[in-house]
Amino acid sequence: MTDDRTPAEGTADDADRHATEELGRPAPDAPLAPPAQSAPPAEPAQPAGPAQPAQPAGPALPPARSGASGWAIAALVVGIGAFLVGLVPVVGLLVALVGVALGVVALVRRRRAQSGLGLGVTGLALSGLAAVTNVAVVAMLVVAVPVGARLADEAASSWYGGDTGQGLDGDPYGPGQGHGYDDADGDGDGDADPAAVTTSCWSFSLPDDAWVSGDATDADACATSLGVADDIAVTPVEVVTVPAAVAEGLVPATSTDRVADAVAALRPSWLPGVGTVVGEPEQTTLDGEPAALVRLATGDDLGTPAAVVVAWSPADATGASSLTLVSVGPDADADLGDGSADDASAAARAAATERTLTSLTGTWHWAGR
Fold first, then answer.
1. What is the CA 173 to chain-centroid distance, rounded?
2. Do 238 and 94 belong to one domain?
């Protein structure tokens, strides 16, 4: 039988047959892998020993100390300030109270901060001391001011006249004397006094045809307040001896012209209460001792003249000398009992004042000379 296959087909058939044969041929045995090593048997577990007890934790470290609290510092600063101004009334007390409050707050809060105790206590102590001091100062002022005012009034009363002389706004003839005078006609039937005034320190005589009426003389205190009366007018005369303590405050011991210095000291204080100073002081004498005559204008219209004589008494055995003030001036309200004061003209009263002043300075005598 003829093979009708083409060469190409025969080649393909041969290839297929060859592949089939290859597939049917067993493959060479691959080398066997060595058998796996079996794991060694596990050793029996060792029994666990008893558990170690837990070690106790050590003591906790103290917290880091912080700086002083602001409250304590503030209490200390305010306490120092309160101590410095403790003598200032009211202000020192207010600052001290603030310091006490800050100190208390600082002590209460110290448990949190654990610091500032010393500063808080110091501030509280200073503030408390300042508060006590301020209260004491205020109490002293409350007590001392009225007492000082009363003492000053007593000194002024004895200096300016008070109960024994003509005050700045009081009765010029002392309590109970009034402005009327007895024995207006000078016939001796009333309370008229001799025509001389005498104390343990000085004496002087009245003008002719004049008499003393309404006398309030304190011979032991060397002071007088009286009226020099005549048929026309009544001229008030007041003599006071300034207390030594007051005089020392007016004129220093080192003064070389005590009369002039006394006048200068009295100008702004005592003289305005008597009247308005007119002109410069005139030099005069009282029984040989230097004196100054200060003329003043009184009354609503400043038309009524008055005068003040300023002098120092002679030194005594201890060397002490007293400042003496003599006031002479008309009283427009004085009445002799018959209305003569109302009828007396300003010129007549001025003339009576001048006569009294001339007689007083001319007859003045210091006791013990």
1. 40
2. no
Q: What b-and-e string marks burial along 99-120, b requiring 16 or more CB atoms within 10 Å of the CB?
A: bbebbbbbbeebeebeebbebb
Cα Rg of the chain, angstroms: 60
Query: Is residue 328 domain-resident?
Result: yes
Q: Can you tell me which residue has the tokens 């009544």?
A: 234
Q: For the chain, report the end-to-end CA distance as a whole number of angstroms.
A: 208
Inter-axis angle of helices 117-160 and 70-84, to 10 degrees?
Answer: 20
- Report the pLDDT averaged over residues 173-192: 40
Identify whether the C-beta of residue 77 lies closer than 8 Å to the C-beta of residue 122.
no
Question: Rounded distance, CA 309 to CA 236, Å?
Answer: 14
Where residue 88 falls (left for φ over 0; alpha for ψ -120 to 50; beta otherwise) is beta
DSSP symbol at 223? B
Global pTM reads 0.48
Report how far Cα 281 is from the mean position of its chain's Cα atoms: 39
CB count in 10 Å sphere of residue 290: 15
Look up residue 168 and give its amino acid: L
Instruction: Tell whether 320 is covered by a domain.
Output: yes
Encode pLDDT of 49-94 as tens digits. Answer: 455 555 555 455 455 455 556 777 877 788 888 778 777 877 878 8
What pLDDT digit, counting tens, does each position of 132-159 carry? 887 888 888 887 777 767 776 666 555 5
Query: CB neighbours (10 Å) of residue 362?
Result: 14
Q: How far is residue 319 from each of residues 2, 109, 154, 216, 249, measured CA to CA in Å?
A: 194, 71, 26, 29, 18
Q: What are phi and psi of 335, to 5 degrees?
A: -135, 130
Q: Cβ contacts of residue 62 below 8 Å, gap of 6+?
A: none
Domain closes at, from 127, 159, 191: 159
- Domain range spanning residue 88? 70-159
Q: Please give the average per-residue pLDDT across 262-290, as a whole number.
A: 92
Same domain, 128 and 188: no
186: left (phi over 0), alpha (psi -120 to 50) or beta: left
| Residue type at 23 in one-letter notation | L
Residue 224 and residue 216 in contact, taking contact as beta carbons nearer than 8 Å: yes
**pLDDT tens for each residue of 112-127:** 555 566 777 787 788 8
